[in-house]
Design goal:
Radius of gyration: 20 Å
Helix content: over 70%
Structural class: mainly alpha
Number of strands: 0
Low-confidence stretches: 1-11
Number of helices: 17
């Protein structure tokens, strides 16, 4: 089912920047409440539900990453796969070592134990969002291994079915109240295991292999139907999150991305947005999209680091404070904008002083 991509189509990747910009903005939203949860206990559930549909962010970023990875593999088909894997992993290792070492050093200075820091590194919790980099390390060689499967649509459907089955088995494990050790094991594993994420690597590779067909299908869907699809996906994501919240008694972390609706949301977003072109957007928005896309890595890491710092600070200052829903929503929106602007600004600054590989 692989469709040939012509030269003109290859240059039409603005939609990738557009989806990256939307996704990284959504990522920051989940780190934007920099006050302790105890200060808004009564509003916490409603806030979580309202923003739960934005959980498409990490799955979409993974999908885009492997869409671009497949693009590079297609161009360098004559290069041995081992060399490609080594080059890609080395490129990923540089910012990973930099950010992990920076935060680990700060935590050591703050008095954290070395054992605790090592555990946080392996669990992808050294800073908020660090797990994403560890997931990429696992998925890159896995993608090379399964890449030949992605020429057939039925194989992609099979991988989607296997991924949903893994999600269902995870739900089953979490709902077994008479086996608490199983839930504890799943919680301790966190978000890092590749078994929760491989479907997005497959979707990314398959999307690029069939890019011409994807663009054609997207362009044939009317704006009205796209809005309908996105609205329905929004509702499904909320329903799925509510279900997850029920079986975990409100303690959804670290399982917020282990939802079949995230797969649906990723597919829907790719279908709806892949026909977006620069000419359809105002200049200021195009510039914003390209900036957010270019410095996506820096924003991802920096906002997670700043979140931990600000949360630690507010925990000491606001222990006895209580916010109502209106105030906490306002704080979240303001924090969202602040973290995004600060993370982007620092990423641009780091790029200019010779640290481009850490943020781009």
């Amino acid at each position: 089912m692989t469709t040939t991509v012509d030269t003109n189509t290859k240059s039409r990747l603005f939609f990738v920047d557009f989806m990256k910009a939307i996704s990284i903005t959504a990522v920051v939203s989940f780190h934007s409440l920099v006050v302790p949860r105890s200060t808004y206990t009564d509003s916490a559930s409603l806030i979580d539900i309202l923003f739960s549909p934005l959980r498409f962010c990490v799955p979409v970023l993974l999908t885009i990453s492997f869409m671009l990875f497949e693009r590079g593999l297609s161009k360098d088909s004559a290069i041995p796969q081992t060399s490609i894997i080594k080059k890609r992993l080395t490129r990923l290792a540089v910012p990973t070592v930099f950010w992990f070492s920076l935060v680990a050093g700060l935590k050591i200075l703050n008095g954290n134990s070395t054992t605790e820091i090592v555990i946080e590194i392996f669990k992808g919790e050294i800073f908020t969002g660090a797990y994403y980099l560890l997931i990429l390390f696992q998925l890159i060689p896995l993608y090379i291994w399964m890449r030949h499967w992605l020429n057939k649509f039925r194989n992609v459907l099979l991988l989607v079915a296997i991924q949903i089955l893994i999600f269902k088995l995870t739900y089953l494990g979490l709902s077994m109240k008479d086996e608490p050790q199983l839930s504890t094991l799943l919680i301790n594993l966190g978000r890092v295991p590749f078994i929760y994420w491989f479907v997005y690597a497959a979707l990314g590779g398959f999307s690029y292999k069939n890019l011409s067909a994807l663009l054609k299908i997207s362009s044939l869907i009317s704006v009205k139907n796209k809005v309908f699809m996105l609205a329905n996906t929004y509702l499904i994501l909320i329903v799925n999150y509510n279900f997850l919240s029920q079986i975990t008694n409100g303690s959804t972390e670290p399982f917020e991305y282990i939802m079949f609706s995230n797969i649906l949301g990723t597919i829907t977003l790719v279908l709806c947005l892949s026909s977006v072109e620069e000419t359809q957007l105002p200049i200021f928005l195009i510039k914003a999209v390209k900036l957010l896309s270019k410095y996506c890595l820096g924003i991802f890491c920096l906002n997670g680091i700043f979140y931990l710092f600000l949360l630690s600070l507010s925990t000491h200052l606001l222990q006895n404070t209580v916010f109502d829903f209106t105030h906490i929503l306002l704080l979240k929106v303001c924090g969202w904008v602040l973290l995004l602007v600060v993370s982007l600004s620092l990423s641009i600054l780091m790029s200019k002083i010779g640290l481009k590989k850490m943020v781009c």
